[in-house]
Amino acid sequence: MQEKVWLKKWNHNVTHSLDYPRISVDKLLQKSAEWYPDKTAIIFYGTRIDYTTAWRYARGLSAFLKKIGIRKGDRIGISMQNSPHWIISYFGIINSGAIVVLLNPMLKEEELENIIRDSGLNTIVTTNDLLGRIGGVASRMNVRVISGNIRFFLPEKANISVPPGIDGEYAGESAISWEEAVKTEPVNEDIHMGSEESAMIAYTSGTTAVPKGCVHTHRSIIANAMASAYWRGETPAAIELGTAPFFHVTGLSFSVLGPIYESGTVIPLYRWDRQAAVESIEKFRVTHWVAVPTMIADLLAMPDLEKHDFSSLTFVGGGGAAVPKALLERFEKITGLNFVEGYGMTEMMGQSHVNPAAWRKPGSIGIPQFGVDAKIIDPETLKELPPGETGEIIFTGPSIFSGYYGKEKETQEAFIEIDGKRYVRSGDIGFMDDDGFFFVVDRLKRMINRSGFKVWPLEVENVIYRIPEVKECCVISTKDSRVGEEVKAYVVLKPGYEGKISREYIIKYCKENLADYKYPRIVEFVDNIPKTGSGKIDWRKLQEIENQRGKQ
After folding, report:
1. Are residues 456 and 422 in the same domain?
2. Are residues 411 and 490 in the same domain?
3. Does the residue 144 lie in any domain?
C-alpha cells in the first residue's frame, strides 16, 4: 500500500478528512431555511427567492406528490434546464421520500423511453418548453407529467440578459401545473430516510449503448457536496454562478448542493450565455464559478472582455475536458485567478480529484479529494503500479455510488477489491507523479469526451445503421479546439448509393434521434473500414489514423 503522498500538497488550512452528518439530502435546504430564513437562496435574472420561500415551495411539491399517491422509493424524473424550478423540484422530490432520476433535457424520445423503462419512473417534472418532446413519450408510457412555466420566476424587467424564447408563451401537451402543485399546503408527516438509503439515480451511457443508472445514497450525495464546498473555501457569503448543467453531477454538486449546504446563493442561468454570465458576475458579485471548457473558450472570445470586473471571484474551475494552455493563460491574466482543473465520474457523484489552488499543476487532474483513495493499476494484472508508471486509474471514497440500478452484473464488473476496499475502475489511463498529482493520458474504454459529456460510439453507430443505405460505419473522435473532441462517423454506403446519400442527410438523421451533444458533426464516406484479424471493425486503427491526421 502506497503512502498518500498527495497530502503534502493539500489545500492550505483544510483538514485532510471530513465527518458526514447522517441526514437526508432535503435537510440541506431545510437547515438553511431555518438558519437564514430571509437570505437570498436563488437569483434568477434579477428575481430573488429567499430560503423560506424555496423551502416552502419544496415542501408544497412534496405534499402534492404524497397527495397523488407517490410513495417512498418511487422514482421521479427531473427534465429541465437550470432554473429555480429545477432546484426546488429536486429537494421537494427527495422530501417526499421518492428517488430523483436525473434526465438530460436534450434527450430525444427514444433515449428518454429507454431511461423510463430502465428506472421504472412514474412521474416527470419538467417545464413547458420541453413538453413537446416529453408529453408524447409520457403519454405512451403512462407517465405522469408535472410542468412549470419558466416565466413564473422571471421579473417583469430582467436586469440580466435573458436568452431568446425563455420568456415566451409555450404550447404543449396538457400536464399538472407545477405552480399549483408547489402551493399545496405542506404536511407535517416526516418520512424517515436513512443516510445509506437511495436518493438519486444519475444515468451514464455504457459501452453497450444501454444507459446505466448510477444509484447514489443520501450519504454519497452529501459527502460530495461537502467536499465541493470546503475545497473551494465556500462560506454562507458564497455566491455561485450556475452555468454547468444541474442534470449532470458536476453542476448539481458544485453549483447547487455545495452552495446550499453552506447557505450560500445560487444564480442559475437557464442556458449558457456569455453576456448574461459576465453581467451576473459583475452585478451580483459572484464568488464561485464552475464551468465547462467550452464556456471558458466562448467567454474569452467576447469583445472587450478585459473591461469587465471579475474582482469578486475567489474560485473558478471545471473539468470534463482539458482546457488548452493558451486559453488558460489568457483567462488567468484577465481574472487574476488560477483555473482549477478537476476530474470525476458519475459513479463518484462528481469530482474524485481536484487541483489544490496553491499547488496547481496545469494539465493535471489534481489530487484525490477528502477521503478518496486513488491508485494506478495494471489493467491486465490489476497490480498496483508505482509513481511514474502508466496504468488504469481506480478510486474509492465516501461519495462512491452503490451500484447500477437493476444491473448486478455490470455493478460487479465496475468494482475491484484491494486490501478489503472496493475501488471503481475508471477506464481512464494515466499516471501519478511523485507529488501525488494524477494525469490522464488515454482511455481504456471506447468513449468520446465532447465538452465534458460522454458519447459512446456504439450508441451513435446503432442509429446510423438504421439508415437502409449504410453498409458499415465506425464512430470515433477527432480533435476540436472548441469542444476538445468532436464526434466523427466514417461511413461505407451500400453499392449503388454512392453520391445519392449526402453527409448532411446522415447528420440530420442522427440529430433527430440523438441528444444534441451526441450526433456526429462530421461524416466521411470511405470505400472500406479497417478490420481486425477476426474480421471485426478495427476502431483503434481508425482512431490512430485520425489522430495522425490531426498532427499534420
Report:
1. no
2. no
3. yes
Residues 220 and 338 in one domain: yes
DSSP 235-275: -TT-EEEE-S-TTSHHHHIIIIIHHHHTT-EEEE-SS--HH
Each residue's pLDDT tens digit in the chain (552 positions)? 456 889 888 988 889 999 999 999 999 999 999 999 999 999 999 999 999 999 999 999 999 999 999 999 999 999 999 999 999 999 999 999 999 999 999 888 988 999 999 999 999 999 988 888 898 899 999 999 999 999 899 998 888 888 876 755 555 557 899 999 999 998 877 788 999 999 999 998 544 456 799 999 999 999 999 999 999 999 999 999 999 999 999 999 999 999 999 999 999 999 999 999 999 999 999 999 998 877 887 888 888 888 999 999 999 998 766 666 767 888 888 888 888 989 989 999 989 999 998 888 888 899 999 999 999 999 888 999 999 988 999 999 999 999 999 999 999 999 999 988 999 999 888 899 999 999 987 767 777 888 878 888 878 888 898 898 998 889 999 988 888 899 999 999 988 898 899 999 999 999 999 989 999 999 999 998 887 665 668 888 898 888 888 766
Name the pTM for this structure. Answer: 0.85
Do 356 and 452 share a domain, yes or no? Answer: no
Residue count (the chain): 552
Count of domains forming the chain = 2
Residue 488 structural domain:
448-551
Residue 435 lies in a domain: no
DSSP 125-190: EEEGGGHHHHHHHHHHTT-EEEEE-GGGG--SS-SSPPPTTTTS----S--EEHHHHTTSPP----
